[in-house]
Amino acid sequence: MRLIMLGAPGAGKGTQAVILSERFNIPHISTGDIFRSNIKEGTELGKKAKEYIDKGLLVPDEITIGIVKDRLLQPDCRNGFILDGFPRTIPQAQYLDKALEDMGIMLDAVINIYVSDDEIVRRMSGRRVCPSCGMSYHTDYNPPGKNGECSGCGTAVVQREDDREETVIKRLQTYHAQTEPLIDYYEKQGKILTVTGRDKIEDTTGELFSSLDSFRQKMSS
Ligand code: AP5
Ligand code: MG
After folding, report:
1. I need a surface site. Which of 91, 103, 122, 188 has the fewest CB within 10 A?
2. Atom of ligand 1 nearest to the CA of 160
């Protein structure tokens, strides 16, 4: 299964991608996670990416595309993958189309998670992440374990630096200007499957799995 997760910052792409990745046993590739681990390790890539991320801007296409290119060639992607947060611009999508064509493979679906801007701001302010395994929590909707520890690995959860309210607002503007046009782009390819990001994570997952099932049946008939 080859999937893309599309949606505004904080729509729940990462949360749902982790669930899909376990269900289909395919790797979850989040460009945001790749940048954050490089920032943490202090690599050259991390230093460059941080300049843009902290301002709520996109990392330039030439940097981002190179990373995804290398990742998709890894052997674990042979049976499929979930791209989370890539593509985010039309040039990135055009690159991906060409790369998949060269590899002789096709996308199954582009899952677009819709959440209103107001709800996004609410969610982001409560988001906490595990710096070790990447698990995402929300102080109210999906709280971490006791003493604010990750229920998966026990590490203390933290707030992402780009989750400050003014940066979230900038990220939303960037999303509407540069990423939202991709809905149309993939709509024209008949690949878009839109689900509403509901108040409960499991409700969104339920809708996502049933829409994905009917979408695949429709595609194969
Ligand atoms: P990235 O990490 O991809 O950030 P993003 O798109 O802004 O998305 P998030 O990870 O913030 O949100 P999400 O949709 O994964 O939501 P989550 O599941 O965590 O990228 C970071 C930065 O890197 C970008 O700003 C950019 O600068 C750069 N970058 C990355 N890719 C790039 C690219 N391709 N090109 C250029 N630059 C790039 O959920 C959010 C919160 O809501 C959590 O607290 C969660 O618990 C909660 N939640 C989730 N679902 C629900 C629900 N149904 N109900 C209630 N709460 C929920
Ligand atoms: Mg994410």
Report:
1. 188
2. 11
* Residue 38 near ligand 1, beta carbon < 6 Å: no
Hey, what are 63's tokens? 């940097």
SS3 6: strand
The mean pLDDT of the chain is: 94
* Residue 218: band (very low, low, confident or very high) from pLDDT cuts 50, 70, 90: confident
- What per-residue string of b and e applies to 13-46 under the rule 16 or more CB within 10 Å gives b? bbbbbbbbbeebebbbbbbbbbbbebbeeeeebb
The encoded tokens of residue 189 equal 């390819």
Measured CA to CA, the distance from residue 85 to residue 63 in angstroms comes to 14
Q: List residues bridging with 208 in a β-sheet.
A: none
Encode pLDDT of 140-151 as tens digits. Answer: 888 999 999 999
pLDDT of residue 184: 98
Active site residues: 13, 88, 127, 160, 171
Distance CA 27, CA 5 (A): 13
Domain ranges (residues) in the chain = 2-27+74-115+165-220
What does the pLDDT read at residue 165?
86
77 annotated as a binding-site residue? no
Query: Which homologous superfamily does the CATH classification assign to the domain defined by 2-27+74-115+165-220?
Result: P-loop containing nucleotide triphosphate hydrolases (3.40.50.300)
The pLDDT score that the predictor gives to residue 134 is 84
